[in-house]
Design a protein that fits this description.
The structure is a single chain. This protein is mainly beta and 268 residues long. The protein is 1% helix and 43% strand. Strands 1-19-18-17-15-23-12-5 form an 8-stranded antiparallel β-sheet, with no helix packed on it. Strands 4, 8, 9, 14, 20, 21, 22 and 24 form an 8-stranded antiparallel β-sheet that branches. Belongs to the glycosyl hydrolase 16 family. InterPro entries: Beta-glucanase-like, Beta-glucanase/XTH, Beta_glucanase, ConA-like_dom_sf.
């Protein structure tokens, strides 16, 4: 049985900021990518920068690998830079395009390690926007907190550059998500956001004047996936990482986008 618990909002910057390049929105390019190789027409890797607090790691392209049997692997490793500015590297996959309403799906096997977050999410912000965006922070999340992979956190942010009004919900699972692939999905429409696990609807957020959900009229959104190491100052949220020489790895495969409010969630 899946149950839901509300969480105290955390002002977490669970996204990445890059250059101020402006991209066109994707309006009709449905796709299903098994992630056996990097499809450079759809994706690019974050490489050579860091977000700052609460992220401990920097982003490096080499942290992401692909294979036919496992799909995409994102590995967190202790790889100190010679100048001492960063000890850890990890990876982040980003879509070139920004997407409108539709179904966003992925099969995921997250990291089971305190202090490490595995995420699949939709994002736009002041430095990540399409040509018609309002330039504000909009985000819809599926996140696994490494200290308890028997649960998944969902969240959204609407026109919120200060990260003041998060809407976190913790969904308890009847399995350990880190042990095998399961299917996770977001259905984003004008009227509501729906989250699914293995084809089952687990939570709905309606768009209301009091609690508006992100609007494609304000901003279309990138599709993103990453693994990141949390600062020990937020250990009450995701746990505290212990340096035991491990290289935590999350796996992703079969990322799918289907446009439109009438799209259907399609577990593999």
């Amino acid at each position: 049985m899946l149950t839901i618990k509300s969480l105290t909002p955390l002002a977490l910057m669970a996204c990445s900021f890059v250059s101020s390049s402006v991209f066109a929105a994707n309006t009709n390019n449905n796709f299903l990518d098994p992630l056996e190789t990097l499809n450079s027409e759809i994706w690019w890797k974050s490489d050579g920068w860091s977000n700052g607090f609460p992220f401990v790691n920097r982003w490096e392209g080499e942290a992401i690998t692909f294979s036919e049997d496992q799909g995409m692997a994102i590995t967190l490793s202790k790889t100190p830079l010679s100048d001492g500015s960063s000890d850890y590297q990890s990876g982040e996959l980003r879509s070139h395009d920004f997407y409108r309403y539709g179904c966003f799906e992925a099969e995921i096997k997250p990291v089971n390690e305190p202090g490490v977050v595995s995420a699949f999410f939709l994002f736009a912000g002041p430095y990540d926007k399409d040509e018609n965006s309002n330039g504000m922070h909009n985000e819809i999340d599926i996140e696994f907190l490494g200290d308890n992979t028997n649960a998944v956190q969902i969240n959204y942010w609407t026109n919120d550059d200060r990260y003041e009004n998060s809407n976190e919900k913790l969904i308890y699972l009847n399995f350990d998500a880190s042990e095998d692939y399961h299917h996770y999905a977001i259905k984003w429409t004008k009227k509501r956001i729906k989250w699914y696990i293995d084809g089952e609807l687990v939570h709905t957020e309606k768009n209301t004047p009091e609690t508006p959900t992100p609007s494609a009229k304000d901003s279309t959104l990138r599709i993103m996936a990453n693994v990141w190491l949390t600062d020990s100052r937020i250990s009450n949220w995701a746990g505290e990482y212990t340096e035991a020489g491990q290289t935590p790895t999350a796996y992703f495969r079969n990322i799918r986008y289907t446009q439109g409010a009438k799209c259907e969630i399609t577990p593999q």
